[in-house]
Amino acid sequence: MTARNTVITLVVLTLFAPIVVPAESKTPAEPAMDADGFVTEWLILGPLPNYLPDDKTDYEHHKKLCWGYEHDFLSDVGGESGVKPVAGGKVTFRDKTVEWKKHTSETFLIDFNKIFPPDGNNVAYAWCTLDAPEASKGLLTFGSDDGIKVWLNGKLVHSMHLGRGIVQDEDLAFVDFRKGANTILVKVDNDWGGFGFCMRFLLKKDAAMGELCRGRLMLKQDKYFVADAKGEISVRPIAKGIPADMYSATVTAKITDPAGKVTILKGKKKLGDEILLKPQADLKGVYKLTVSLQDEYGKTKELKTGFAFTPELAGKEDNLDSLTALMDPKKHPKLYAKVLPYLEIRILGLKYLLENAESSADAEAIGLMLQDLFEIISEYNAGKDCFAGKPGVFVKAYRANIDNSLQPYSVDVPQSYVPSKPSPLTVFLHGYGGPTLTRGKWVAGQSRSRDARENPHTIIELNVYGRGNTGYHAQGTKDVFRAMEEVTRDYNIDPKRIYLKGGSMGGHGTWFVSIYHPDRFAAISPVCGYCHCAEDDWWDKTDPKEFKELMMHYGLTFFAENYLHVPQFIHHGNEDKSVDVKNSRAMKKRLEELGYEYIYKEYGGVGHSVPVDGKAVDEWFMKYTLNPYPKKVIYKTVSLRHNGAYWVRIDEFIDPNSVTKIEAEVTGPNEVKVRTRNVRQFSLDLPEKLFDRTKPVNVQVDEMPAVAFAADSSNPISLRKSATGPAWQDFTGKTPPGLRKKHGLCGAMPDVYEEKFIYVYGTAGDDDEDEINRRVATETRDAVTGANWGQIVGDFVVKKDADVTKEDIQTANLILFGRPESNAMTAKIQPKLPIRLEGDKLIASRNHPAKDLYVAFIYPNPLNPERYVFVQYAADAEKFKPLHVFDQDSDYMVFKRTDDKKGKGHEKDLQFIEAGHFNGRWRFDRDSE
Length: 929
Hints:
By secondary structure, the chain is of the alpha+beta class. Helix content is about 15%, strand content about 35%.
């Protein structure tokens, strides 16, 4: 062999066809199985609590401190390793008694949510026996939602504890069945949402009864690319998790080069033996590898993958990141900026898969991404974008302006796409991806196939990452529109036929994004989304400091008037345990009250996984086109962050803490009637489609005398309500004096994350305080970018106060950590801030003794009033710790921390001294004019 070779390990996993026992041979204890070997008949026991309410909170539960998963509820009846249940047998825990009941499922799935009444997070047991005619090695396969434990004949043979949905054959347990009756006990715990499992038996001796039913090929590589132009390739097929003595095979390995030439090596090999492939040509280009396994009964399974070689990559195989150096940025500067992220996102996805690949789909994704790496580099050097005009499913990415982070998206281009003809676009928003939804994992999931989604309307589909689990708020919304910009740049998209859809968290995102941007979508289709967290009167009971943020994010039915021109096709299962169907019902009710166009489809007996007919939704979408210039516009909001649509904009509120609404309607030639609620100032674009701008335009507001505007061909007009009376005045081209809340600078605290932001910790104190400031800043950044709800995946900067530059002040919101004594930036601006720490006093709307007080507030940066500062510190520096993301819902807070744990969904220990929202001039008093 040459001095340096590519070593490619192929991991092959083969599952065997299930045993089928004749009905007359079954013992009474033996369970029923379906044709695929899934056990459908069980004794079921439950539900039992997964955590003790007085010992374990739900927040801890999501950290996987699941008491019930570890607790043996069967200790009084033989224990989990020795129980021998009978139908009707009872188990008592505390004051609750449950009994073993016979259950037969009509499908492969044992769905505890259908068996038991909903009762929070629980555990349940299932028990059966299998009669084996003789002792034999075998295989049990499982899928579970969520954690699972399995005992065979009293011995724990499998345990997997994590939150997930059910996937058939996701877990494997290779076991020894004894002759006669074999007992199986299964225990499943519920994290949230779905609750159940599936299991089947597969026996080695019966593999010859049918073809091998499943094969998984994984490409595990020690080196990524060959080091020189010629050499041997080491291939090592292994069966992941299968004992070496259980399966032997005749292995045929075949490599096909880019020209179609085939090199074959065939021989009697055991799994795990090394095979040396000796290509007859230089290794360059994209290769396909096929491995055929023939078992001892003569059955053959063929598994395939692909990979790429190029001599130019010699020496780079140990560092994928170095591949970017193979594209000279000076060669094609504009093209480089466009395609470099395509290369980088595949490197990120490859790193994930090379460490986590578990299936044939993962292997295919590795092959596709390796192929893409070669093609991206080669085509770039030829001055081309390798994906331009090509049909298929492609992961792409862009560099975000706010943090220079790499953000992925995928696009599905049908074979029928013709660049000269405008195509419709559907934008899809994914559901909650769990605590591990990294960019690498998402890219891997989107890279498993190149097969385009064919449809008669040549619809292109955009799949948005949304910066993780953001709920499509803040940077999640920006990711949606940036990805749309990327796709409309690269493909011929009809701007009047763009549609939005999504499920679960993506269903919420569909409502959230479109309700504040109704002028961007022709129609929407939310599936199992949440929009209305509680009953109507809940909002009246909400703390005023939380009201605005909670209503804006979750009280979306309040703003349904914005959907005047946006039809909806809503889907929900009536047994959804993850997102209550009352959410969709509430939106349906509101749309019905408004007389707006919608279709509501509720699926009886269905939970969170709704079988939506995608083709039917596409057909429904095609009925609608966007009208960018409707004669009537209604827009309702509680934040100037969302301040208008179509040709209408709200510029300033009267009371920034109240719901605001504007209605504008063209009632005649160059005549507009406007009605307002809580509006101080607004603007109208007056598009040529609706107005003759060569003639005067009359605008009547709130039944006041009309204001006449002179002929003007381009500029928007503005009207402002008089401070001394009800009259409206022409305010076009004018700016009200002083500091005011406006679009992009309106609070509350979450608004700091809408634009570029930097975490700045103080280093002007003593070493201990500086370290506390650094730790709090870093932990805050990690919480925002971490795995919890509200996650914003990005590369956000943490830096010292001394390192803040003039450019930072001009371009970024600054999140400042540390008292004025320890943070030089805070000290510099403190004289102009509404909340100040002066000696042992804290100055806010009132003066307070500073001892034990904490401060957090957002305010326009006195050094640049077009950007925010978000100031956080504790008067007693050693007590300073991060502010939970769910507590960031007002403009300002002065508080103490207590040992009293209260709140919704997290540990909340804040006792407020002052908290709320500044008025329209960023002051404490209520008068904003």
